[in-house]
Structures are given as C-alpha cells and as structure tokens.
Specification:
The complex is a heterodimer of chains A (449) and B (176). Chain A is mainly alpha-helical. Helix content of chain A is 74%, strand content 0%. In chain A, helix 1 runs antiparallel to helix 13. Chain A starts with 9 loop residues before the first helix and ends in a 16-residue tail after the last helix. Chain B is built from six helices and eight strands, in the order βααβαβββαβαββα. Chain B is an alpha/beta fold and 176 residues long. The chains are: A mainly alpha (449), B alpha/beta (176).
C-alpha cells in the first residue's frame, strides 16, 4: 500500500463531460427533443444519451478513476487504460447520436452507426469496469463505500448490455423475437439500471466518503449504511434481473419495477439518515460551498422520490416520466456532480501543483484556489433554473421550460468558468502562485511528478 | 534458526496502564517471513485481530486458566512478504523515539498533510516524527516515498485515530 496518486486523465474526462452538458442544455433551449418531441422520439434519445453518457457517465468515470483508489487505499490498476476508454466512450456516443439521427431520418447513409456505437461503447465501458474492478479486487477488504461502487459497476454493465441489445435491434442487426420484445418494453429497466444503479448508487457510495472527508466527519460504517447497501442492492437486482426475466417470459416488468421502487425508497431513506448524521456529526462548522450546494442536490433527490410516489398514486407517472428524469438528472445527479467537481478540481490541482513542495516553500491553501462568493451566484442560478424548469415542465409550459434551460446553460458556463480559473490558478495572488519548484498543472493531463 | 513463534507478553504493560500497540507492531515488523507471533494479554484483544488480519495474519485466541489470553497470530499463506507493505519500513531494528509529535486529527484536510510535510522538512536524517491523523493519509504516502522517508502507520485500537511514524530519509536503508 503506497496510497493513491493523481489520476492522469480525470481532468480530460471532466472537460469532455462539461462539453456534453453544454450541448444538452443548448439542445433543450433550442427545443430539440423532449418536451417538444415524445419521450421515445429519436431527438429525445439523443438528448437523454448526451446527458447520461456524455455528461453524467464521463463525470462519474473521471471521478471514480481518482477516488476508487482513495476508497480502497490501492493504486489505480492502470492509468494508461483510462485514455483509450475515454476515446472509445466519446466516439461511441458520437456514433450513437448519428445512429439516432439515422432513425429519425436526418441522415440518409446506411452505415450501421448503432452497431458501431454498440461496439465502441461496450468496449469503452468494459475498459472502465475492468480498470476499476481490478483496483477494487486488489483491496484486502472493501469498505462500505467501495461496495456501493462495486454494485454500481455491475449496474453499468447491465445498462450497457441492455443498451447494446436495443441498439442492435433498432439498427436492424438482430431480430430475435425475444430481443424485439425486450426492446419494446425494456426501456424503463435500462433507465433504472443506468440512473438508479450506475449513477445514483455509485454517487451514494462516493458521497459517503467525500462528505466525511470534506466536512471532517467520521467515516460511516453504521447499521443504516449496511442496510442501505443491502436493500438498495436487492431493489436493483429485482428491477434489473426481475424486470428482464418478466419481459422475456411475457410478464410485466412494471411489477418488478414497482417492487424495486419500494425497496429503493427505503434504501434512499436510510441513506438520507446517514447523510443527515454526517452533516450533524461534522467537526468543521463552516462548511464549504461544495458541501452546502450538495445539500440542495439531496433535496432534489428527496423531491424526485416524492414526485414519483405522487405520480404513481395519481396514475400519471408515464405521462410525466420526462419531468421525473429531468429532476433526477439535473437536480440530483448534476447538482451533486457540479458541486463536488468544483471542490475536486481545486483539491487535485492544489495537490498536483503544491504537493511536491509542501514544507519546502510557503504554499497557498486549497481555498486560495477558489473564490466562493463569485461561484455561489452561479450555483444559485443553476438550482433555481432547474427547479423552475421542473415546475413549468409539470405544468406543461414548454416555452418557459426553454427559458429555464437557457438560464441553466448560463449558470453552468459560469460554474465551468470558475472551475477553469481554479485549474489555471487564476484566483491565487500572482506573488504566491508559483513558488520555486512548483509548476503550473496542464489543463487536461495531471502529472505524477 | 528462528522459532515458529516470537513470544511477546504485554501483560506487564497493560497492568501498568500502558498502551502496548506500539510494542506489538514493532514485534510484528521484526518477524521473519513465515514466523508467527505468540501474544499474551490480560484480555481478548479483539481490535487487534482486524488490524493484523489486514497485515496478513490469522489468529487463534485461547483463554488461559487465570483469565489471561494467549493469541497466536499466524502468517496466512503468501502474505508473509506482502504483510509489511502497509508500512514499507519493516526493518527489525527498533526506531528511535519520535523527536516530535503532531496531533493533526482536528485539522481541515489537507492541513494535516501540509503540517506533516512541513515538520519533516525541518528534521534531521534518521529522526522520527509521530503524527496522529483522523484517517489513512492516502495522498501523503506517495509524497513521503518521493522524498525518501520511511514510515510505519496503522489505526490505533480505537479504530478512529491513525498513527503514523515517519523516519526521515530512511527509505533506502529500509529497502536494503
């Protein structure tokens, strides 16, 4: 065990992820895809996958390449594999978008873009799973947060497998009846595995550790944490395995998904109790912007659960599924992602630049790399825009929704600008920016030196 | 020829109200590959089991007639050489007592790392620094390695304090 070092390519993942987020926000503002088009329309599929793969998955992969080694106190299995994985994922997403454009009749060529996307994305995610899986496997004992991540990796494998089946069916590459049926009714399983299993469950695991680290709270291994892991895992297994089996045996996957939802609510309630405990047990009284903004992301997660329950009760879930996905993706996952990214980039940049000379020369503090009063305005705008967008979406006001997403776009440009200034050390006073022996980190590649 | 077990009796230390953890870890560090530790204690040292398990030792605990405990720590197969990796400094010679002690447990990260490295820079070759932390210092360890320092670290039996001993400029000597 020699601890964890800087992940070489995580900054490149983050940059690619932010570009995808901008692209998605521009699409929504331009009225491309939902709510202007139906949920199943090719335009909406493009939008959803740019958000899910381009923004959220690349962000998550970049964060995991850095923090899985921290969780298990083992070096990353391979720094080298991270780059081809990124290239495969980005080119796979491009092929997927082209494939959907083909489905929508926007492009006339007969090149099998969806099949190409299957291969590229399948290989890209496989490399990520292999790399992180080997890192986890090297640990003598997996702490609880790492177990959440392990379940998340199994879920991304399931999500990608279903996605590949759908892409091959829609692209006309395969036409087995059972797979046609699965494609017809399996989308909620694919979405649950991706948003619930891969993105939410993994984010839960990593947040346990990051919140404890950044707020000086004790690491949790409470019975509630174990119960959240166990119940959440069972719920995901019921949703994914149960859903697929139901679909293949001419049953109704909705029953499996409903059962899983009840388990999921229980797991999230336990997680909520743990997070509350973390905030209360913290030793650091004045918490930083990332931890304050993360609290709003948790509020969005809770609101998502309530919204699903209410819509289920009213029998309107299907009608408003787009609004639910919007709140989960932009209120919860993106809210958490942007808040933590703001801190992660500052911390990693500080470590890369000043770590080698700590103690040898006076160095700035991590907080000298950021200007929170300026950044907080962008975060507030972002959160207000998301919640306003959610309300007008539920109210059926598509034009106002585009105004809200335009505000989200402006806010994320602002946040990304702050992150860029942090990475370039622009916020550090010139006199203390680069003491002797320190080097300005490169924008996209972190060095070990 | 070394015997299969190194014997360590920490009962006197415990009866005097002392803390035998350091003693035990030093004994563990001095084991030759394949050798086990026979430990005598006044109670069943349960917290130690997981600490030593992570270092590659299984245990067999037995209560003695007088209520004391005898525990055999056996190196699990293949772990004999990887065990000391948690603390690359696995030399048999005892380290000198720490010249300086830092309690960094209540500091905001990354302040513990900053203070620890600042202290090492002010110390002389061969001296030992002791620092208390509130978690395993994952980002500090590679920096110590780069600077050529040796270290030994583990969680205290309370499970919440991580104690690290750093010996200045000793990495080469330890490896030899």
């Amino acid at each position: 065990m020699i601890g964890a070092s800087l992940s070489r390519w995580s900054m490149a993942y983050f940059a690619a992820a932010l570009i995808a987020l901008f692209a998605a926000e521009i699409m929504m503002t331009a009225g491309f895809g939902f709510p202007g088009a139906t949920v199943a329309a090719p335009e909406t599929l493009i939008l959803v996958h740019v958000v899910a793969i381009g923004w959220l998955s690349l962000l998550m992969c970049g964060a995991l390449l850095q923090f899985v080694p921290v969780l298990v106190v083992q070096p990353l299995y391979s720094d080298t594999l991270a780059l081809p994985a990124l290239v495969l994922l980005v080119s796979g997403l491009a092929a997927l978008v082209l494939g959907f454009l083909q489905l929508g009749g926007y492009i006339g060529t007969s090149f099998p873009f969806l099949a190409a996307a299957s291969v590229l994305l399948g290989c890209g995610f496989a490399l990520i799973i292999w790399n992180l899986g080997r890192t986890l496997a090297a640990a003598p004992k997996l702490p609880l947060p790492a177990r959440f991540v392990t379940v998340g990796l199994v879920c991304v494998a399931a999500t990608v497998t279903l996605g590949i089946i759908f892409a091959l069916v829609l692209g006309g590459t395969v036409n087995a009846t059972s797979l046609l049926v699965l494609t017809g009714i399996g989308r909620p399983i694919h979405a649950t595995a991706g948003l619930g299993g891969w993105l939410t469950f993994t984010a839960m695991g990593v947040s346990y550790r990051l919140l404890a680290m950044f707020m000086l709270a004790p690491d949790l291994e409470r019975p509630t944490t174990r119960a959240a892991l166990l119940i959440g895992t069972i719920a995901l297994a019921v949703a994914i395995a149960g859903g697929v089996i139901a679909a293949l045996t001419h049953g109704n996957p909705a029953i499996a998904l409903l059962a899983a939802f009840i388990g999921g609510v229980l797991a999230l309630a336990l997680y909520g109790a743990d997070v509350r405990h973390l905030y209360r047990a913290r030793k650091r009284k004045n918490i930083e912007l990332n931890s304050r903004m993360t609290a709003f992301a948790f509020a969005s997660l809770a609101a998502s659960v309530v919204l699903i329950a209410v819509l289920l009760g009213l029998g309107q879930l299907e009608e408003h599924i787009g609004a639910v996905v919007f709140l989960v993706a932009f209120g919860w996952l993106s809210g958490l992602g942007l808040a933590q990214l703001y801190k992660i980039v500052a911390f990693l940049t500080w470590l890369e630049c000043y770590g080698p000379i700590l103690g040898k020369a006076p160095t700035p503090r991590v907080q000298d790399l950021v200007v929170e009063p300026r950044a907080v305005k962008w975060f507030r705008l972002y959160l207000l825009a998301v919640w306003a967008g959610e309300i007008v979406l539920l109210a059926g006001l598509p034009l106002l929704f585009r105004v809200a997403t335009a505000a989200m776009f402006v806010a994320t440009i602002g946040i990304a600008g702050e992150i860029l200034r942090t990475r370039r050390l622009h916020n550090v006073a010139a006199a203390s920016r680069l003491p002797a022996g320190a080097q300005l980190p490169r924008l996209l590649i972190s060095s070990h030196a | 020829m070394t015997s299969a077990f190194l014997e360590l009796d920490v009962r006197p230390t415990l009866r005097n109200g002392g803390e035998p953890f350091q003693e035990i870890m030093q004994a563990i560090a001095s084991l030759v590959p394949g050798q086990g530790l026979k430990l005598y204690a006044t109670f069943k040292p349960v917290p130690l089991f997981s600490v030593l398990k992570s270092k590659g030792f299984s245990n067999e605990a037995r209560e003695l007639d007088n209520g004391d405990w005898e525990v055999l720590f056996l190196p699990t197969e293949g772990a004999a050489h990887t065990a000391p990796a948690a603390a690359p400094a696995a030399d048999s010679a005892a380290w000198p007592a720490p010249m300086q002690e830092l309690d960094n447990r209540d500091l905001d990260p990354p302040e513990p790392m900053v203070r620890t490295l600042a202290a090492t820079e002010a110390m002389q070759q061969g001296e030992v620094l002791c620092a208390l932390l509130c978690r395993e210092p994952v980002f500090l360890l590679p920096e110590l390695a780069k600077r050529g320092h040796a270290w030994r670290g583990a969680f205290e039996p309370d499970g919440t304090t991580y104690k690290i001993l750093i010996r200045i400029g000793a990495a080469d000597r330890e490896a030899a």
